[in-house]
Amino acid sequence: MKVKLFGKIPFKTVKVNVVPDLRVIPGGQTIGVKVKSAGILVVGHHQVRANNGTKESPGEKAGLRLGDLIIRIDGHNINEVRKVADLVEQAGKEQRPLAITYKRNGTIGETKLYPIRDAEERNWKLGLYIRDSAAGVGTLTFYAPEQGVYGALGHVITDMDTQTPIEVGEGQILQSSVTSINKSQTGEPGEKRAHFVKEGKILGNIERNTPFGIFGKMNENPIHSYSDKTIPVTFAEEVKEGPAQILTVVNGQKVERFNIEIAHVTKQPAPATKGMVIKITDKRLLDKTGGIVQGMSGSPIIQNGKLVGAVTHVFVNDPSSGYGCFIEWMLQDAGILMRERERSTTHRTAA
């Protein structure tokens, strides 16, 4: 008997997300942040008056712009402002230019800068305002005890003058205590006022400053946590519109839980900021802060017992609302999840 063949059985490839068995301890603690840049950041120009009465900025004339990161001067790696003066003085006395190597938008450039002797102060100057560090407060988002890493802030740290991201050379996070709240009002976001405590007690280092926050090593869960128990995390596609909670501090070091509403969820198949719109619904928090305030960024967002994201920005015209980012992208930048979106297993099934 002949058997008729109907051809090959077609197969299709189906990709199925595999959720890692990942659990982290949610944060909420207010933290102090100290960052030292990977060079000297140009934050402004100023005019220098020479002996002949002329005024100009040698740095501006050399083509240096706001946001440029000076990484070498005369072949010396440089990341501290205090080391610049001696190099400038030496070049000025020798009547020669400084060889400047700088980074701009990720690209390395070089220029020659001729210092000018200030007629009034009688020292040699670059005509630049420069900075090598920054400090502030924010909120811890999570601590992953198995990996020994943390994530915080939910957004990049930028220089306050140039609004450019700070390229981190080194940094630390420390314990911080909220002393008062400047409430948010329409058109005027408020802020947490806080001070560093136990500065000798370093909670962790800062290794990366990305669009989704700061990340680094941490050896133990900080004190004053809402809970020392781990909770599961969830991927972006599982976040739903509806009730949720945030963990944050409004007084001292006590982490409290407050109700919010996830008003909108954006479909994000790849990392992007502004993943969700959130609205504060908790009357206690609204009475205390007026809504979202500066320093609250990084506050973990929890839905159905899972960590889903972090608070990132406030709406200036409606401080009760703001943006949040998905925790998935923070976990990628922390090095816990693979960066590829296809965290999947390929199965073959008959069509």
From TrEMBL:
Record's keyword annotation contains Protease: yes
Alphabetic keyword roster: Hydrolase, Protease, Serine protease
Domain Peptidase S55: 107-346
InterPro entries hit by this protein: PDZ (IPR001478), PDZ_6 (IPR041489), PDZ_sf (IPR036034), Peptidase_S1_PA (IPR009003), Peptidase_S55 (IPR008763), SpoIVB (IPR014219)
A Pfam family the protein falls into: Peptidase_S55
UniProt cross-references to NCBIfam families, sorted A to Z: spore_IV_B
Protein name (database record): SpoIVB peptidase
Taxonomic lineage from the root: Bacteria, Bacillati, Bacillota, Bacilli, Bacillales
